[in-house]
Structure formats: C-alpha cells, structure tokens
What we know:
By secondary structure, the chain is an alpha/beta fold. The protein is built from 13 helices and nine strands. Strands 1-4-5-6-7-8-9 form a seven-stranded parallel beta sheet.
Amino acid sequence: MNARExxxxxxxxEAVDRPPVSVWRHFPEQDQxxxxxxxxxxAWQERWGWDFVKYMPPGDYATIDWGARSAFTGWSxxxxxxxxxxxxxxxxWKALKPLDVRQGFNGMVLEALRMSRERIDADVPFLQTIxxxxxxxxxMTNGQIVGQLREHPEVVHAALELITRVTCDMVxxxxxxxxxxxxxxxxxxxxxxxxxxEYRAFGVPYDLRVIGASRAAxxxxxxxxxxxxxxxxxxxxxxxxVDILNWHDRLTGPSLKEGYGIVxxxxxxxxxxxxxxxxxxxxVAEEAREAVxxxxxxxxxxxxxxxxxxATPEDRIxxxxxxxxxxx
Length: 328
C-alpha cells in the first residue's frame, strides 16, 4: 500500500498492510515565514516518511491578522506566548472585521502549505491545521472566552459568526493550496473547561459549518478531529461527521480501545506526547506495539495524543516509526 491507500483503508476499517503512522512537532521561530515553514515541513517529512503530514503552522496563526502578537519564550512544546491579545474587553469584539485569508499571516501559512505540497510525495495526504471557531475565540481573548460567553452570550455568538465565516474561507483556500484534508482542533471539547451544554450552544453549530465547508470544498477530503483537554467529550465528538478522532489517550484517557467503543470510527493515538521525551526508545516502541494490538491494527492510526515536545530525541521518534512499520 502507499500512504494514501493505507490512510483510506484505516478510515474505512479495512485490512491494511500496517497501520498508518505520523508524528508532529512545532518549529518555533522557523514558522514565521513561508520559506522557513515550508523548508521545515518538507525536511520533517523527508526525514521520517510519515503516512500523512499534519501541517504545523504556529498555534496562534489564526489570530495574528486580527491583531494578536506573540513571542517564542522557550516552552518545550514549541508554542508561542501571546504578548498582545486582540480582545481584552468584551466591547473589543464589536470592532472585529472580516479578513481576506489570502493576505497577511494567513496568506503566509497558505503559501507555505502550497510550497510544501509541491515538494512532498503526492501519495502522502497533507492535512491543514484548522482551529475550531470557539478555540480561535479562546486564543483571541487569551483564555477568557468561557467567562465571556456566560456573561455576554449574544456578543460572543456574533463574534463566532464572523470567525466561522473566515475559518470556512481558510478551509476553502487550504484545499486550493493543495491540502487533502483538515486537522480540526478543538481546545474546549473538554469538561474541565466548558460544560457539554455550553459547547453544544457555542461550539457545535459553528464547528459543523467548518466541517461542512471542508466537505463542500472536497467531498473526499479527510477530516481529522482532535479534541484537546483532560476530560474529552468523546460522546459529543462521536456525533461529528468526521473520519478520525484523536485525544490524549495515553495522558488522560480513555484508552484507544475504550474510546473506539464510544466513537465507533477510526481513532488516532497510542503515543504519549509528553513522556516520549524522557522514555527509553524501548518503552516508546512498546507503546506503539500496544496501540496496534489493542485494535488489531484496524480503524487505527498510530500518532501522539497531541503535538510532541520539539526537543524530543530522534531515537524516540525512530522507535515509533520502526515499531509500527514492523507490525505488518
């Protein structure tokens, strides 16, 4: 099988020669220009030959053209620290304006995607990172959105409407630039941040429009849904019309097997994104082998539960790749 065939078979629950495998990391300070981001993206894929590319623009990219500012301060995950939030007070939402995603920092991210896609094997699916509208709002307020939606629901709904329109445009533009699907990330589908009722009101309607934009842009486009946080709402996530679900299965649970029983569709995980940095290569390889065995290699993609630390030693990454590729 080639990578695309392998990923498609895993999504469908069909027999595979081995499960697809992919690992991703940030490229701090090398993700601020199209040339450097493309260079790092291509080099990462050339080094490891993953079965799909999870594109890694900076985690705050969707906020920059609305006025966010950030700096890399050395955090081991590789994320940048916000130094200026676009929304500091609830009234700031009223000044929010539409964006042309083909310009500014969004345009840079798209150009790097295009440049990367041209240099990466066409048989390897390339997934653009798209944050959920409520996640973008959370980033734009530097973590204050839940309090705002509880106190000023009408203002937040209006803001989410605009953010959703821009995010749908980014999905369309990403396919035009060469993406094969989206890595749709929600940082609020977790009960330690919001209640399920709150997410159904302020998250689900807007998420479904973004996922619908992906399907409209390309019917066979892959939708990989990452639910971030300590208490993932997997039952809610299972309702989404997505192809793959991913959460912190090793770090917070539930396990891949338990989660698969809840969602009933392809799941991605098996590698602890935090302990991989300090674990031995043998321990990391055993995690990968356990993941494959837990689902019999079907409906499974072996990945971390989230982004790995950018300084993770190469022998740990190599251990993942070799364990999965030796499982056929």
